[in-house]
Structure formats: C-alpha cells, structure tokens
Design goal:
Strand 12, helix 6 and strand 13 form a beta-alpha-beta unit. The protein has two domains: 182 residues, FAD/NAD(P)-binding domain; 124 residues, FAD/NAD(P)-binding domain (3-Layer(bba) Sandwich), CATH 3.50.50. The radius of gyration is 21 Å and the shape is elongated. The protein contains seven helices and 19 strands. The chain is an alpha/beta fold and 313 residues long. The strands form five sheets. Strands 1, 2, 5, 6, 7, 8 and 19 form a seven-stranded mixed β-sheet that branches. Strands 10-17-11-12-13 form a five-stranded parallel β-sheet, covered by helices on one side. It has a three-stranded antiparallel β-sheet with strand order 14-15-16. It starts with a strand and ends with a helix.
C-alpha cells in the first residue's frame, strides 16, 4: 500500500495550485486528476480573466500549463479518480478506481462542481460556441449583443443583471410565472430596463451555424408552456443558470456539507471538520466559482496541509 504526505483528489485550478505549493514544500504530493482532468476550464475556449495572460489563453492550454508547472516541482499526476475514503483515522485510506489504495497524511479535495444543463442535444453541440454556464467568465465576449439566460433563482437573476451591464439585451427565460430568486434580486431584475422576462417558457432548441469545427449560436426556439406558441429569439450567447452539483458523493456521511452537497470549511480556512482533510475550489465555493478564486484556495489548502503535518511532528 502506497503512502504519501499529501494526496490531492481532483485537478483544475484549485488542485494544480495546491500541487504547486505542496510540491515546493517538499510534501511530494500525488494527484489523481478525477473524472474531468483539468476541470471545467477544459470545456471553455478563450479565458480572458486569469491574471498574467494579457491576450487571453485557451482554457485547455491554461490547464496544461498549470499541470506542467505542478509536475516541474515534483507532483506525481495520475489518471484516475478516488472512489472511497476512510476518514475515521489518520493516515487516511483512499481507494482509487484502478484498485490502488493510498495512505495519506493529508488530503486536499479539489473535485469541483458540475454545472447543470438543460440536456438538449443542440445545447451540447454549441458548448464553446455560444453556450455557457458562467456569465462572469464569458459575458465579455457578447458586449453589445443580445443574449439569453435560463433559470429563475438567485443565480439566474445575478447572471442576468451582470450581463445587462455589458450586452444590449437579456432574455431571462423561466418555466414559471414568478421568479424563485430572493426579493432583492427580483427587484433588481425588474428595475433593469434591458432585461425581458419570458414567463412560463422553456427552450426547445438552440440554433446556429456550423462550418467544420467552427460553431456559432444565433438563436433559440422558446415554447410558451401556457399558450403552446413557439417563437425564435435572435441571440449570440446562451447562459444556463440552473445551478451546479458539487462532486462530493464519496464524502457524504464522512465530511460536513451543506444541504446541496458543498463541503463546509472553517472560516478563513480550507479545513473541513476532519483534521488533516482540506477542501479547495468549487467543491466548497458556491458563491464565486472563478478559476482565480479556486487557485487561491488551492494555495491555502497546501499551506494548511504543510502546517498540519509540521504540527504533528
């Protein structure tokens, strides 16, 4: 059975930043990349808001650079995902899907969260070509254009009002006749003149053009559930804001999490309720969900892991 001072579960900006710091602290970390190596940024095209890239950078390229940097300092990056963890005693026994078992003095969880989508075939087709689940990440590309946001909760309201400051017009598409968002967010939406709410509506299809590998969204077919009438709205961007699912299934019943499954960390810390286990990135952050904030908590988790090990000696 293998042993390590620091096991990192999951990749992405949080995992790789944790790996860089842990490796430089001579913790000789082992990382398992998880079900989506590189995290959500590998599904995006150009990233314009990560510091240090004045001309932007392709999402997969950014993650490859972070991986190379982590490996340069000695991180052992492996393909695979954790399937179980015993948190009852330390070192923690972690099982990997290939049958490997690792005893880890500290564990950094960076498994992220998965954006929820509508499940349309056309939606999948135009991911990276107009379909996004993050207005803060991709809204800039639609400056002065018309876009749509799907959802009715606080996230959808926040995305719509954020985009309204950048784009020409926002269609907010909601299945019901009233928003589920908080009163304050509803008021903000209602006060924003370039947001048009399509009540009792659902998206039937996303349409656009394709030329080789290039795809460009240019509209959506929207059905009014009460009248049965379909209409096409002309848009350049389509933002899905119906929530995220944190990738925390293997930690249920073992680590504290909120009602939606996000891991709970102590204030001003990445420490979970189990000493020696830390959580970084979107797996514990349901507010910001940005690459740079994930990287910041990855740094915190590695430093806290190093200090934890030092305190045990």
């Amino acid at each position: 059975m293998e042993t390590t001072k620091c096991l990192i579960i999951g990749s992405g900006p949080a995992g790789f930043t944790a790996a860089i710091y842990a490796a430089r602290a001579d913790l000789h970390p082992i990382m398992y990349e998880g079900m989506q190596p590189g995290g959500q940024l590998t599904t995006t095209t150009e990233v314009d808001n990560f510091p240090g890239y004045p001309d932007g950078i392709d999402g997969p390229k950014l993650m490859e650079d972070l991986k190379k940097q982590a490996e340069r300092f000695g991180t052992e990056v492996r393909w695979g995902m954790a399937t179980d963890i015993d948190t009852s005693s330390r070192p923690f026994k972690v099982s990997i899907d290939d049958g490997t078992q690792i005893m880890a003095e500290t564990v950094i969880i960076a498994t992220g969260a998965t954006a929820k989508y509508l499940g349309l075939e056309s939606e999948e087709k135009f991911k990276g070509g107009g379909v996004s689940a993050c207005a803060t990440c991709d809204g800039f590309f639609y400056k002065g254009k018309d876009v749509a946001v799907v959802g009715g909760g606080d996230t959808a309201a926040e995305e719509a009002t954020y985009l309204a400051n950048i784009v020409n017009k926002v269609y907010l598409i909601h299945r019901r006749d009233e928003l589920r968002a908080s009163k304050a967010m509803v008021n903000r939406v209602m006060r924003t003149p370039n947001i048009e709410i399509l009540w009792d509506s659902e998206v039937k299809e996303i349409v656009g053009t394709e030329s080789g590998f290039m795809k460009a969204l240019n509209g959506a077919i929207v059905l009014n559930r009460k009248t049965g009438v379909e209409r096409k709205i002309d848009i350049d961007g389509f933002f899905v804001a119906i929530g995220h699912t944190p990738n925390t299934d293997i930690f249920k019943g073992k680590l504290d999490m909120d009602e939606t499954g996000y891991l709970i960390t102590k204030p001003d810390s990445t420490a979970t309720n189990v000493p020696g286990i830390f959580a970084a990135g979107d797996v514990q952050d349901k507010h910001y969900r940005q690459a740079i904030t994930a990287a910041g908590t990855g740094c915190m988790a590695a430093i806290e892991s190093e200090r934890f090990i030092g305190d045990q000696q």
